[in-house]
Design brief:
Number of domains of chain B: 3
Oligomer: heterodimer
Number of helices of chain B: 11
CATH class of the largest domain in chain B: Alpha Beta
CATH superfamily of the domain at 324-431 in chain A: Tetratricopeptide repeat domain
Order of helices and strands of chain A: HEHHHEHHHHHHHHHHHHHHHH
Strand content of chain A: under 5%
CATH superfamily of the largest domain in chain B: ATPase, nucleotide binding domain
Strand order of the largest sheet of chain A: 1-2
CATH topology of the domain at 324-431 in chain A: Serine Threonine Protein Phosphatase 5, Tetratricopeptide repeat
Shape of chain A: flat
Helix content of chain B: 25-40%
CATH architecture of the largest domain in chain B: 2-Layer Sandwich
Radius of gyration of chain B: 25 Å
Distance between the termini of chain A: 95 Å
CATH architecture of the domain at 324-431 in chain A: Alpha Horseshoe
Largest interface: A-B, 37 and 45 residues
Structural class of chain B: alpha+beta
Number of helices of chain A: 20
CATH topology of the largest domain in chain B: Nucleotidyltransferase, domain 5
Distance between the termini of chain B: 30 Å
Shape of chain B: globular
Strand content of chain B: 25-35%
């Protein structure tokens, strides 16, 4: 226990110039080690998982002893709310506070304009509407559906139908709408939840207490009357062999917020891998929170983007076979997040061509041509693939298509000439 | 963009529809009929026949003519309903390598998705002939009570037919879409769908182009064919009594009886009495025997009364599920050929206290609805929206073999739901999450969709660890399940990919074989 007292409430940082490669760690220990960023407090570190808390403690104290870690006695910004919370919580050991969170005042969030993508098959104003509506998902149910509190079931249903018509994922069935697909699912689930809660008088009451009076007076004992028919909620509870404990959810939401703040700090410091891990944990603690998933998505896109820039900077012509394979794998990873990026597809196609993976190359070129059929270079690339596959007729027509689009495409002209010369020679050889 | 079709793949008849100039319409086949029998046969000389051609030769070639394969699709061979069908079918049903029922015809063994695929391909061909262009995409309907496997098998059948199946929707829901299109105002409707092989009842809310399913209920093994069977059984017994000849072993006689029963039953919807006249039905030492029987409407009603009462029980259950009183229903839409029977109409009317709606054709309305849903999905101009529901409850198996529902049946999708579970032993380090689908409170009576283990739970007394299990169903009905240890944040999850009774390779093989066959036909 002494060991734990020493660690309690501390914040750890790697010693400067720490060469972690000399450490030998298990996967779980390595995970814990990777979480040490000079900002995450002890209590969060040990709760983050993968490793039992006592083992985490012993690891931490060992690393401090062995000189890998410095103890930063206070979090970087001592006045920040989480540092205070940290201290009060530390005094109570690892007992989790089970108070419901005070409801946040409704606030309209700024929308993130960068999420609007003009290349999508999707009206920009509709995209804006989705982002704006998403920003209001934290509002009380009745405000979300824009109906007065205590409205008639018919009014609530009409509002729900109206929003469904706008936001149901089927409205954009099989259309290229990028990250908005997830957003729509989230929005629809939320309006469905609002509709279900508001149209059930009993659930509605719970909701009103949650949003209107955080600490309601205990209602007087109901006088015994003739037995009422069971409400939907009661029927559900009877059928469910378990109870929903709101307090548990509330404390987990708080925890998620703390972890997310740590992630934001990591992100600011440019530690993307650590930030991603933290956000994942935050999501696992509070899966309903759109903000976290949003952050994870944009983080992944950001990471993919920076990797893509690096990849595109290195010319593939000078790479060895192994390096090409490696590059292709990385490209494929990045393409998951940016499947239609023309440069990436072009690069991937060229790498595949070099590797002799003609079918794969063809796939990427098809994506290119589907999106931008009017770029000559893409047709030239297509022609080259056909030529490699010895389908000369198809190659010629692809090159011709390229030249039709851009008469000055020297690549295409040269390739076309060489195919024609090859054909002529073959013809001569045949007659001779 | 190529056209997308809606197909009502029925037990006895199928129907294909499209949207033409904003209006849904049924496409007639080359014989001018708006519905095509869901039959497939192999003639004596090895020709493959589908639809009316198959039906025409069914009497002389009963052993090699397959009908009502929809009753078998997606079921296990040992399923009592499959066993019942085996006893009643003139064709041979054998046990397949995946424990699935397969059908023998023309010396070859066919899987059920393959048979449905052949019929879907025929419907696709009917549409292509009419439109003069290739059709690739379709919405297909299934009975509301089909489970995941049955739906997946129907999707596989679509694949075998060369169709990209955009969505599988429920037959009563499709009917409601067709009814609700271009109707203003708000209505609660009940769709009573008594088809050839299945019975479904759904209660829906319609308001300005949005169709919300409130509840659905039914029986996958109850339909018009049961009526025919009752008549056949009655005739066989009567014939044995009066003539002393047992027709049960004579497949050709049984097929003739079945045909006559079906025709007689339909005629009795308009008339009070029909004559069933089958000359030379059998012969023995005393020469040929003829069957001549007068079947009255009252006669028929007595034979099938309990079947109809069974459907009314389902209707009651559905009203309870939807939290709707019978007199809250504004309209009753009757679907399926069997709903034409006067006794059915009378009982439905008595139950709801009002006359059923007359404006839709019970044979075509489902196909029309499928086409409307296809257009609603792909055409951004189309304003209809279907708020569909999960047909069966989803949950996990818990201690003591109980089934804990996390998503109740009739829940609108997409949806996510989660609950916290705990351990049952001290220092239990892992929990097994068994994902189940069904309505029984006993875990083992439901279908297992998948399972996984969440391990690494820190030691604690039983009841202390908290494991949150979350279910997520997306708009396409794909279910994913995750379990998370709240203390450590450790998580495990699976996407429940519903599987049919065929593997992907088997499907590819079948497609290849049928493609070869197509080539053979044309050369």
């Amino acid at each position: 226990m002494k060991q734990v007292e020493n660690l309690m409430g501390q914040v750890f940082a790697l010693v400067p110039d720490c060469d972690a490669t000399r450490l030998s760690l298990t996967a779980a220990e390595g995970y814990l080690f990777s979480r040490i960023d000079g900002a995450t407090p002890w209590r969060l570190l040990r709760e983050m998982g993968g490793i039992p808390v006592d083992e985490a403690d012993s690891c931490l104290s060992r690393w401090v002893e062995e000189g890998w870690l410095d103890i930063v006695s206070e979090a970087p910004s001592a006045s920040s709310p989480e540092a205070n919370a940290e201290q009060t919580n530390a005094e109570q050991a690892d007992e989790v506070q089970a108070e419901p969170p005070t409801p946040e005042p409704p606030q309209i969030l700024e929308i993130d304009e960068s999420q609007i993508d003009e290349r999508l098959d999707f009206d920009v104003s509709a995209q804006r509407r989705i982002l704006e509506f998403e920003a209001t998902l934290g509002l009380p149910y009745s405000e979300l559906l824009d109906v007065p509190r205590g409205s008639e079931p018919n009014v609530i249903k009409r509002a729900y139908f109206k929003l469904s018509k706008e936001f149901h994922p089927d409205r954009y069935f099989r259309r290229e709408i990028g990250s908005h697909a997830e957003r729509l699912e989230r929005i629809f689930k939320k309006i469905l939840e609002a509709y279900e809660m508001l149209s059930d008088p009993d659930l509605c009451q719970v909701e009103n207490q949650r949003t209107v009076a955080p600490c309601p007076e205990p209602s007087p004992e109901p006088t015994p009357e003739a037995p009422k028919p069971l409400t939907k909620l009661e029927r559900l509870q009877q059928r469910m062999p378990f109870k929903i404990d709101q307090a548990v959810f509330a404390s987990r939401r708080e925890k998620a917020k703390e972890i997310f703040r740590a992630a934001e700090r990591s992100m600011e410091a440019g530690r993307l891998v650590a930030a991603e891990a933290s956000i994942r944990i935050a999501i696992s603690f509070d899966p309903g929170r759109a903000e976290f998933k949003e952050a994870l998505g944009s983080l992944r896109i950001r990471a993919a983007g920076s990797r893509a820039t690096k990849l595109l900077a290195a010319p593939s012509e000078r790479m060895s076979g192994g390096e090409l394979r490696e590059a292709l794998k990385l490209l494929e990873d990045v393409l998951i997040y940016r499947p239609h990026d023309p440069e990436l597809n072009d690069r991937a196609a060229r790498v595949c061509l070099q590797l002799g993976e003609f079918n794969l190359a063809m796939g990427y070129v098809e994506t290119l041509l589907e999106r931008t059929p009017d770029v000559a270079a893409h047709h030239t690339l297509l022609g080259r693939i056909y030529r490699e596959q010895n389908d000369l007729a198809a190659a010629v027509s692809a090159f011709e298509a390229a030249l039709k689009l851009d008469e000055e495409d020297l690549d295409a002209r040269r390739a076309l000439a060489s195919v024609r010369i090859g054909e002529r020679n073959a013809a001569r050889g045949g007659t001779a | 963009m190529s056209r997308v079709i809606g197909i009502d793949l029925g037990t006895t008849n199928s129907c294909v529809a499209i949207i033409e100039n904003g209006q849904p319409m049924v496409i007639p086949n080359s014989g001018g009929y708006k519905t095509t029998p869901s039959m497939f046969g192999i003639s004596q000389d090895g020709k493959r026949l589908v639809g009316h051609l198959a039906k025409r030769q069914a009497i002389t070639n009963a052993r090699n003519t397959i009908s009502a394969s929809k009753r078998l699709i997606g079921r296990r061979f040992d399923d009592p309903e499959v066993q019942k069908t085996i006893d009643l079918s003139p064709f041979e049903i054998v046990r397949g390598p995946n424990e699935d029922p397969r059908i023998k015809a023309g010396g070859k063994i066919f899987t059920c998705p393959e048979i449905s695929g052949i019929i879907l391909r025929e419907m696709k061909r009917v549409a292509e002939e009419y439109l003069g262009e290739t059709v690739r995409e379709a919405v297909i309907t299934v009975p509301a009570h089909f489970n995941d496997t049955q739906r997946q098998c129907t999707k596989d059948a679509g694949k075998i037919a060369g169709l990209d199946v955009l969505r599988i929707i429920n037959e009563p829901t499709a009917a409601a879409l067709a009814y609700g299109m271009n109707r203003a105002g708000e209505e609660k409707i009940a769709v009573y769908d008594l088809g050839g092989g299945t019975f479904d009842i759904s209660i829906l809310d319609i308001s300005d182009g949005v169709v919300e399913v409130l509840a659905t209920s039914g029986n996958t093994f109850l339909g018009g064919e049961d009526f025919d069977r009752r008549i056949v059984q009655h005739l066989v017994e009567w014939f044995e009594e009066t003539e002393g000849v047992d027709l049960r072993g004579d497949t050709m006689a049984l097929q003739r009886l079945k045909d006559a029963a079906e025709k007689g039953k339909c005629d009795l919807s308009m008339r009070e009495v029909v004559e069933i006249n089958l000359p030379f039905i059998a012969s023995d030492a005393e020469g040929p025997r003829h069957l001549n029987y007068e079947l009255t409407r009252e006669n028929l009603e007595n034979l099938v009364r309990d079947v109809i009462e069974g459907t009314i029980k389902c209707v009651e259950q559905c009203c309870v599920d939807a939290d709707v009183r019978p007199d809250d229903i504004d309209q009753i839409v009757l679907v399926g050929g069997q709903s034409r029977m006067p006794l059915v109409q009378r009982r439905v009317m008595e139950f709801f206290g009002k006359r059923p709606h007359k404006g839709v054709n019970p044979d075509e309305v489902v196909g029309l609805g499928a086409a409307i849903q296809a257009a609603a999905l792909l055409d951004s101009e189309n304003d209809m929206l279907l708020l569909d529901v999960t047909p069966l409850s989803l949950g996990i198996g818990t201690f003591g073999g109980h089934f804990a529902r996390l998503i109740e049946r009739n829940t609108t999708v997409p949806v996510s739901k989660g609950h916290v579970f705990t351990t049952t032993r001290d220092d239990q380090s892992a929990v097994k999450i068994r994902v189940l689908q069904g309505e029984s409170d006993i875990a083992s009576e439901n279908d297992l969709l998948g399972e996984f283990v969440l391990s690494g739970i820190p030691s604690a007394p039983k009841g202390e660890p908290e494991v949150e299990v979350s279910f997520d169903i997306d708009a396409n009905g794909i279910v994913s399940v995750s379990a998370r240890d709240l203390a450590t944040g450790k998580e495990q999850s699976i996407t429940v990919s519903s599987t049919g009774t065929l593997s992907d390779t088997e499907i590819d093989e079948i497609i290849e074989e049928h493609d070869l066959y197509e080539v053979q036909l044309r050369t």
